Amino acid sequence: MTGLPFSLVCALSYTLIQNGATFVSVDKIPNPRDGSPALLIQDDGGGMDSEAMRRCMSFGFSDKNSKLAIGQYGNGFKTSSMRLGADAIVFSRHLNNGILTQSIGLLSYTFLMQTQLDRIVVPMVNYEYNTSTSSLDVLNGKEHFMANLELLLRWSPYSSEADLLKQFQDMGSYGTKVIVYNLWFNDEGITELDFDTDPKDIRIAWDVKKISTIPTRKRIQEEHIAKTFRYSLRVYLSILYLRLPKTFQIILRGQAVKPHSIADDLKLVEFIKYTPQCAGPVEELFVTIGFLKEAPHVNIHGFNVYHKHRLILPFWQVVRYQHSRGRGVVGIMQADFVEPTHDKQDFEKTSLFQKLEARLKSMTWEYWDTHFKLIGYRAEDKTRTRVTKPLPSLQKSLGYHNKRKTDEPIDLQKRKKHASEEYVTGLGFGQNKQITTTPADEVVNPETINLMQENKKLHTECLELEKRGEELNSKVVELRSKIEEAQNEYNQLLAELQSLDVKEE
Ligand SMILES: *[C@@H]1O[C@H](CO)[C@@H](O)[C@H](O)[C@H]1NC(C)=O
């Protein structure tokens, strides 16, 4: 499980990111009131008008109409902000049909606790820019405005209206800014989010201490991304999205987060076809599976399961290995056919999901059994750890496939003869057994195949270029020594010539 605060930061960012945003920025700022750390999350998306803002901030309080109240920002705002800190203030600038509005809202647990009101009050003020006077007009009536402003100045980190309005200055034409302050402390009396250990990161306090006590021998393992994502927000964000639009950036503490592809950490990679066992038309998909490059020196395994490009299960351990079977095996897949839970930290435990789990389990073992020797495990590791197969009836209910029959590698060269051209086009995969499939999955997505083929071609080209580079390098060395030789010869001849000149005189 990821450190909970991270998933909340991400949920909050996710809630914030709106159509058209080019970035979401997560940072620490000092609370102007007392200098304590506060969490800032900001985007440059379309922002919210006063109505959208009201819906966002009161979602979950007015449950009777919650269906209607779910706005773009509704889900997750209250839960994630209030779990991170006691108080949150939201600034949003919105532009619609040439009308620019600015809204400020406050969701303050401190305020609600201390005033013990019998209802939930979420103070909000709204402004509209008046183009003829070039100034801000107050919306929703002056009296209402003054009462709300007073509450904002009393309970927010800003003690004057000017200070509040200053928060819009770095916002451009639209965008939203959430500041969570009075962050919760952990049992040791420090904030759960650690801003100090790495000034370019946000960490979870408790894990950082643990790692410094680990012997160097085990560092490879402990410093692996599979471990660090649990306490480093930068690492977590780097694997959180399988694919982000090129124009979009996640900025953490002023520095863009570099996306990281876990697939690049693997060796002996295979793509194994999986067809979800659901009724109706299903999309075939491929599971990328391989050994971590550090194998056999790391004790890490599991699948990274993405849903609509967002990571739901990081390094999900589908097998419990006895001895070593499965050790070092890591997979990546995108599973849009199963539904994530509301908090996006797991999948709903449907039978579809259980079938997927069972298949990933058998896949891990099959992969291990055919590859473990290649990375230096001894054969006895396997025999010793061989797990007995369940009875056939059990196999069926667990979603097992009969391995021999179903998972034979397709010889795509041969397949080409009977498969129609539109599905499989000339491939060079046969001898490498890079694709395995089940009979139910006979049709291989031509685009995927093309991409893999292209990938392989580029890889070969790359190797060739590297080789060529090496050849050229040795040529350079050779030529250098020839130049040197020639230079020596020249010097010698010159010396001889000079001595001849002397004689002539
Ligand atoms: C802008 O301000 C002027 C002067 O106060 C007012 O008459 C006008 O109605 C305002 N315009 C809008 C669009 O509110």
UniProtKB/TrEMBL annotation:
GO terms for cellular component: nucleus. Its main location: nucleus. Keywords: Chromatin regulator, Coiled coil, DNA damage, DNA repair, Endonuclease, Hydrolase, Nuclease, Nucleus, RNA-mediated gene silencing, Signal. Residues 455-503 form a coiled coil. One of its GO terms (biological process) is positive regulation of defense response. Residues 1-22 form the signal peptide. GO terms for molecular function: ATP hydrolysis activity; endonuclease activity. It is found in: Nucleus. Residues 231-368 form the Morc S5 domain. This is Morc S5 domain-containing protein.
